[in-house]
Batch of 2 targets.
Target 1
Amino acid sequence: MPAGSDTDTPALSVSARPAGGLTRLGGWCARHPVLVMAAWLLALTAALAGRHAVAPAFSDQVSLSGTQSSTGADLLAAHSRTAGGSSGHVVFHGPSGAVTSSPSVSSSLSGLAHLPHVTSVSAPVVSDDGHTAYTTVRFDVEAKALGHDYTRQLDRATQPARDSRLKVAYGGDLDQVTRQPADDRASELVGIVAALLVLLLAFGSVLAALLPLVSALIAVGTGFGVVGVVAGTVSFATSAPTLATMIGLGVGIDYGLFLTTRFRQDLMDGHDPVSAATRTTASSGRAVLVAGVTVIVAMLGLCACGLGFIGKLGFAASLAVAITATAAVTLVPAALSLTGRHIDRIALRRPIAETSGDRDGWHRYAARIARHPWRCLAAGTAALALLSVPALSMRLGHVDASADRAGTTSRTAYDLIAQATGPGFGPGANGPLTVVIDLGTHRSGTSDLATTLQQALRSAPDVAQVTTPTSTPDGRLLTTTVTPVHGPQDASTTALVTTLVDDTLPSALHGTTAHGYVTGTTAAQIDFRDTVRQRLPVIIATVLAAAFLLLMTVFRSLVIPLKAVLLNLATTTASYGVLTAVFQWGWGSSLLGLHEPVPIESYVPMMMFAIVFGLSMDYEIFLLSRIADLWHTSADNTRSVGAGLAATGRVISSAALIMTAVFLSFTSSPTVVVKMLALGLAVSVVLDATLVRLVLVPSSMFLLGRANWWLPDRLERRLPHLHA
């Protein structure tokens, strides 16, 4: 039976202390709106100008020091002059005849050999029918460092082959050169338009709709510039600007929406614009800051994984959130004060603020939840559990060039090599494995060891070809190339690498002082996946602990933060399930421009956990803040939960719809990782705004009653008090 009125009033929370720094900040911004807005426009201009001056470079290079693939690569670089840098494939294809008999291919190979940073161009590997051939081009730098403009030099070098009507495509590491830099401006525009439509429907007023949107765009533009400036000294991943923009735009609009809604309610309650803006900052502004800090803590928690690549992505996103949250408590109050009572002048319908009365639909819905809390709790939990089932089969991996759009040069090169037959061809030729044997003191009997090694490698499952092991010039290493039967992202290739490292090489080298390593791009990606998988629990524990402590301090309760972290953990797991079903199982992946199922990119679950957890907390914080306000006024748990749900129902639903629209717009990105993150985040927002906020949170709070606000006295005295 749900709890009714409670008589014991706990110690006042932050929400019951209106006087403080935020009150003074909101009041100052409300009294000096022009100055505040001018300062933000100046900050936007300076940030974008700084980004242009710095001309940041982004890189997806990952350092995996200590892994077996990294050790093998370091040995090769130390003992083989041609092993450093990176390599790529240049593929030639003709409809008939032997491709390599054409003089144009020889001219193209010569042109490639004379390009900057090229250290070697191998003899062409020719398919059985002679229609397809490819050469391996090695560089003295990482392919990404060559820059996209290097594609023009490749095209000039291979122009003779094109002139003779041969198809030319670039693959391997050259996809980092030839791939167009991601342009997500169309996605951003779609998200902005969708957000504007939702705001117009939510507010019924043009100015009220534009104010959160414009303030968010100013904040996101500033954040975009700041990320670019920081990228001049910190090497961010190529997806960092898109990630920062996507998250910043979503939370920025939502924060502005929450503040504008409260401001309009205060105006309706009779307060003047300056006073209303001040009160808004002190109340909703506090919730904005708590929500923003929660997201930032979750993002920075990624640094705990020890992988700089992922930690820097979290840092870039946290910069964007910090700037949008700052804009929400400074720029938005200033704009609200300046707009004043004119905010509803251009109205599309009768303006509505937080609630339309004690008997509106939200109050009636809350009453139904209060009458059947156990039934609602069970149904919501079952729904999340069902959605989480696919996550049990989630397979992490790397999305290779086979997922690129048809017609791109990287996809063409992949398909030509995969579809041709003969030694050096087939799907596995797109991800060959390099086996490195450090002979150590085992210098005698090298030829016998090479024979044993080759036989052992050939007998491993799913091996298509093994080249004859050769010694490096100094005689310290033996190297050979293993071509898998299947492509780089296939599960059997991952299993093959594990078999080679754990069984085949130790058995072949048993009784010697030699040590074996499997390296190359595919092996490094598998090591990266394993490293991420091992460190994911650390991220989860770090983020959960930090969020729990923050929420416990804000809400002065042990029960509320415990429920919040558990519910958000369940939401994240359910989002994993949907992501697995769509991408890995292929359920609807064609709608996202993918022609076949793909594994979940290795670091996506880790990124998703931090982002989903942080963003999901936003809505709970706004809901729980209002419930806490009412609880500390009435000490009636049932009334507080019902009224809090009703008061925030419209605004949180609108905010969730906006954020979902923004995230879904980014599923049109050409980058598969961005598609995954965008869809996962959109699903998590929908789940959090419906199942969690509308079902699980109110039903559990109705059931627990006054226990929701339990906090031991000793802990209460030790916790700091945060004042608004």
Target 2
Amino acid sequence: MRQAKQGEILLVSSGDLRLSANQNCWAAQLEMEQKLTTAIEQFGWTVKRAHAYNPIKKHGFIDSQRMGMDIFNNIDPNQPLIVAESVWQYSHHVLAGLFTHRGPILTVANWSGQWPGLVGMLNLNGCLTKAKVSYSTLWSENFTDDFFTDGLAEWLATGKISYDQSHVKSFDLTKIPLADDKRGRAFAKKLKARKVIMGVFDEGCMGMYNAIIPDELLHQTGFFKERLSQSALYAAMLQVTDQEAEAILNWLLQKGMTFNWGTDEATELTKNQTLAQCKMYIAALRIADEFACDTIGIQYQQGLKDLTVASDLVEGLLNNEDRPPVYALDGKELYAKKALPHFNEVDECAGLDALLTYNLWNELGMTGENTLHDIRWGEYYKGVDIDGFVWLFLISGAAPAAHFINGYAGASSERQPAMYFRLGGGSLKGISKPGFIVWSRVFVADNELHCDLGVGEVVALPADETKRRWEGTTPEWPIMHAILKGVSRDQLMARHKANHIQVVYTNYEAAAHEACRIKAAAMDELGLKVHFCGDVNLSKKRNSI
């Protein structure tokens, strides 16, 4: 084992499992590490990379769990350590090493929409929180701003960083209207008594340890897993007829949805790829019906990608109430006139939230279609009627057409990037409509389930600004421009324990606050530790739900 040097910080970087992603992001990672090193050296410390650039792979990321374990076996467990990220990373590549590391740990990401280190770091933070590993976290665009340098100075001096968490209020320490409390608890009691089946197509996606809810915690809420296989999903796709797939596609075309088809299977979305996705949509509903699932999640990223098309279009369709009808072999319509809530990337924390939210909103007389998004990036924006920090939420799949301006008519399907999805498949892309939302995140901490939630507003940015933001991130994916009420950029980053955030619309602003309160009571009744975040009105207002 290498002995620590006085005044030296070791740096590691967890990477993607996919070679193309690591190669694509390496230049940005190198630039980020250089800026980070310069910032640290100004405080009199030195930085040493704990693993070298690989000239054969053409990147310097840790790209497997075994590689991460071997690297940490040569690290003094008491030495200060930084995990620096400019790429989506698989947290299990470094989780084992960080689990036994005793020295101060700092996770750092570049503030960038183009390079997804921010998303990767948020996932790692959620994984470390679940694993009960102590860490601090920082983020910056250029590593020269006061927030970053002040935080870095504090970590170098004390081994930890304090954060402004004044926006967080424990549900246990707040008082909401009795009617809201009773409504939420009555709903949750019925849900828990009936019990819920969560269909999980291959647990654990892209290293997201934080997205797996331990059974012993999940069962206390009334949710139980039906563990399903993606190979069974693929087999079920083979049983769907071409005519059935064509009927799904024709339904979408009649709704006005656009498919940007080409002819090159390797680089373009083709009609054949879309038809294969239609078969997957039918197969998913039939399997869900077979096992009486209330909600399902398809892992997809590592399993099916070498067999068939991406699942993203499927996920968005499942989350929409108005969707193409699917029939069992005996002719029965499956989940008629309802969404089948789908949790992208088998994020079970999102799955619990999605199912509860969908059913609760319907009981409150509102449409319950909801989705998770990646917290991809954000930037301050000032324009007509907008003056604030506008988050850019983005996700490959799961966003329902009901969230988009003009619904299906405002939606398109674009080919997923070829470097990730060799066999293609399209997204369900659109711009989220203006309106008020409730946002939330379920997560595991201290071996308990928690839920953060608050209110926000989706805003309409000018077309050129939307285009700029899309082109600086992933233009094939659906986008949401959101302002979170009473929560600053740095407050959310310091507090949030996942790369994903759950969003659902309400009818108007007062309804968002009331529904947030009722949802908090429901989550509390299920046994979660609930926290209001930001400006949530805790009293009753007129024009309520």
